[in-house]
Design a protein that fits this description.
By secondary structure, the protein is of the alpha/beta class. The protein has one domain: Class I glutamine amidotransferase (GATase) domain (Rossmann fold), CATH 3.40.50.880. The strands form 3 sheets. The chain has a 7-stranded mixed beta sheet, with helices on both faces. Strands 3-4 form a two-stranded antiparallel sheet. The chain has a two-stranded parallel sheet with strand order 8-9. Helix 1 packs parallel to helix 5 and helix 5 packs antiparallel against helix 6. It is globular.
């Protein structure tokens, strides 16, 4: 059985959110992976890498899996009804509706997270509640056919989890080995609770502007008396 996966490829995407799962998916047997956007013109990722979409919204098939990566460009997607409509339409038929990092906020804006357990980047976990989602701190969180990955590098774990689900653990482990995915970071600073306070403060400062811009585009915080 063959599968066709679509990964949203938009200006300002965090390239590792996209290329991490892409590498896993493209390494699997009988999987075609498309980068999908409004046009097939090259787009520039948040860190400067140029990426070329392979299919447009108009020409896209009903994907077996639709994935929304995160990145600074998410801020432009949140009010973008053309993109939100495309994600909603794909979600109606996809076997898996997925996101990496802050791509989950796009799923939320599309109305796909209500009452669902979901994850995202550590600096955006509280924003999930704006979409009546249930925030869960995890690298891969599944609720029915909804799969959301945590921040950035979690996309690789997510990709392997999907392949294991569809093709079995042997295929997923074969891909993991071929990619030599055996994380052993030189520093134990990959989560807020592990990083030194000054490192956490520096990281928050670095992404503060994007966070403030994003908050302004989201639904207001719901308080108990509004429920």
């Amino acid at each position: 059985m063959s599968f066709r996966f679509g990964i949203l490829c938009f200006p300002g995407v965090q390239q590792l959110d996209l290329t991490g799962p892409y590498e896993v998916f493209a390494s699997a047997r009988d999987v075609q992976v498309d980068l999908v956007w409004k046009t097939t013109d090259p787009v520039r990722a948040s860190t400067g890498l140029w990426l070329t979409p392979s299919v447009t919204f108009a020409d896209a098939p009903n994907f077996d899996l639709i994935c929304v990566p995160g990145g600074g460009g998410v801020n432009l997607l949140l009010p973008d009804e053309e993109t939100l409509d495309f994600v909603r339409a794909q979600a109606e038929t996809a076997h898996f509706v997925t996101s990496v990092c802050t791509g989950s906020l796009v799923l939320g804006k599309a109305g796909l997270l209500t009452g669902k357990r979901a994850s995202t980047h550590w600096n955006a976990m509280d924003l999930l509640e704006r979409f009546e989602a249930i925030p869960v701190a995890g690298r891969v969180v599944r609720d029915g056919n909804l799969i959301t990955a945590g921040g950035v590098t979690s996309g690789i774990d997510f990709g392997l989890s999907v392949i294991a689900e569809l093709m079995g653990q042997d295929e997923a482990e074969t891909i993991q080995l071929s990619l030599e995915y055996a994380p052993a970071p030189p520093f134990d600073a990959g989560l807020p609770e592990r990083a030194r306070p000054e490192i956490l403060a520096a990281a928050r400062l670095r992404i503060e502007r994007s966070r403030h811009e994003r908050e302004a585009l989201l639904p207001p915080v719901r308080h108990e008396h509004q429920l």
